[in-house]
Structures are given as structure tokens and as C-alpha cells.
Amino acid sequence: MSNKRSRLTRQQWLNLIIISVSAMLLLSVLVGRLISNSTVDSASPSQVPRLTEIDFGDIQLRFVSESWQVVSSKKISIQQAKIIGENWQALLLSRSQPLKSGVPGGKTVLLYLSTLNQPVVSKVSYSDKQMLVTFASTSQQFSIPYSERINYMPELSNQK
Predict the structure, then answer these.
(1) What is the reported pTM?
(2) Key word Transmembrane present in the record (predicted)?
């Protein structure tokens, strides 16, 4: 018996190489799409450090023993301090808008986080029936409806 082997012609080898390279390219594109779809746009609550203190200048709020406390001579209710603290913590989790220009002027609010030794500087300004909160260090900007500003700024809570 003769030993017949299947030999590929030059054209068949070329076709095999083209098909193999095309399959590898398709596989790399699909894997890239899977990886990009699995990334999370906003951080989960466990990834964001805990907000431990908010300094509004004349009023300071501290998170101590699982509750917010007022540390200043000005008085706001514990309930209002809790609302303000939770709203600023939620702001750290929310999606920001791109900053269109430089950091605007306005009231400075210092945010102290559990994992940082220095405060995060934020500026609060008002325009077009909204409150803008800008984090100077990260150039993140958040737009909050003007009607909700009382839930973020303690000096406004006394004016109810």
C-alpha cells in the first residue's frame, strides 16, 4: 500500500493562515468588548471612602459613632446634619459632569475622607436655578436643583 499523505498546496496554506489570523483578530475584538462592558462607570459604596467631616467654615459636621454631629456655635438639628452628611456622601458616588471651564468661585466646603490626610476642596456656586458643586482637585462638577440646596448647605437650613 502506498502511504498517501494529504499535502496542502501553497494556496491552501495561504487560505489557512488568512482564516487563522482573522479568527484571532475577531477573538481579540470580542474579548476587548467584554472587558470594556464589565467596567463600572461609578464606584460602588464599598470603594468610596467614608466622609468623616464636612467643614463649611462656620459650621462643621463630623461623622462619629455611626451618626452625624454638629461641631460649631451655630445650631442646626441633628436630623438636618444627618441629611446634609448623607447627601454629601451620596454626591461622592454620583456621576459628575465634565468641568467646562476653570473652578468657579463661591463658598469653599472642605470634605475630610477616611482614607485621605488632607481635605478635598469643593466650591459651591449658584447659576441658572441650580447649585453647582465643583471638586477642585478632580475637576468634577455636580449640578443640584436649586430647590434642593437646603439639603446640602447648613446655613440655609436655619432659614426654613
Answers:
(1) 0.63
(2) yes
